[in-house]
Amino acid sequence: ISVMKVLIVLCALACTAFGAIKKCGDEEFDNTDLMCCNGNITPRPDPNCVARVNNKCCATVGFDNSEYMCCDGVINARPDGYRANNKCCGQKAFDNLGNMCCRGVINARPGGDPALHQCCGKVAFSQADCRCRSEVLTCDAVVGGESASSATDEM
C-alpha cells in the first residue's frame, strides 16, 4: 500500500465522521453542510471535506479562514502579504509588515528599524527620531543643517 492510498483512505474516513448528526446547544444538525458557531447553526463556507479545516467561526457565523479573518466579530478579507503578518486592529484587518495599529487606528510604519517603532496615542513613530511623553510626541528635525525640535499636539 502506498502512502498516498493510506492518506486518501484516512481522509475519506475523516470526511465520513464529519457527515454526522451533531448537537448545537439543544438542537441537532447534520454536520455535512452545517456547523455550530457559538450556539448558532450556520452553513459551512465550504462543505468540501478537504476545505473544512478552514471552516471557522466568527461570532455566530462560519467563514473560510484561508481567505478571511475575524476581527472582533467582523469578517474581513485577509490583507495581501504573508499570513503571519495578518493582524487585527479593532474590527479591521491589516498587514503588520508595512503598518501598525495604535489604539484602533492603522498607521503606516515609520522608516528605520521596526524594533524602534512605537505608538504615541493613535500615531506611530520611530524612537530613533521622536519621543513620546504623556501622549505628546516630540521629534528632532534637521533644519538647514542644524537640529531643531518640534512637538505635536496630544494624540
String of helices and strands: HEEEEEEEEEEEEEEEEE
Shape: elongated
Structural class: mainly beta
Compute the separation of the termini in Å. Answer: 66 Å
Specify Rg, calculated over alpha carbons: 24 Å
Characterize the biggest β-sheet. Answer: 3 strands, antiparallel
Number of strands: 17
Percent of residues in helices: 10-25%
The proportion of residues in beta strands is: over 45%
Helical segment count? 1
Uncertain runs with pLDDT below 50, 5 residues or more?
143-150
Mean pLDDT: 85
Describe the structure.
By secondary structure, the chain is mostly beta strands. Helix content is 10%, strand content 48%. It is built from one helix and 17 strands. The chain has one helix at 3-18; strands spanning 21-24, 27-30, 34-37, 40-43, 55-58, 61-64, 68-71, 74-77, 86-89, 92-95, 99-102, 105-108, 117-120, 123-126, 130-133, 136-143, 146-151. Strands 15-16-17 form a three-stranded antiparallel sheet, with no helix packed on it. Strands 1-2 form a two-stranded antiparallel sheet. A two-stranded antiparallel ribbon has the order 3-4. Strand 11 (99-102) and strand 12 form a beta hairpin. It is elongated, with a radius of gyration of 24 Å. 10% of the residues are buried.
Topology, element by element:
Blueprint: H1 3-18, E1 21-24, E2 27-30, E3 34-37, E4 40-43, E5 55-58, E6 61-64, E7 68-71, E8 74-77, E9 86-89, E10 92-95, E11 99-102, E12 105-108, E13 117-120, E14 123-126, E15 130-133, E16 136-143, E17 146-151
Antiparallel strand pairs: 1-2, 3-4, 5-6, 7-8, 9-10, 11-12, 13-14, 15-16, 16-17
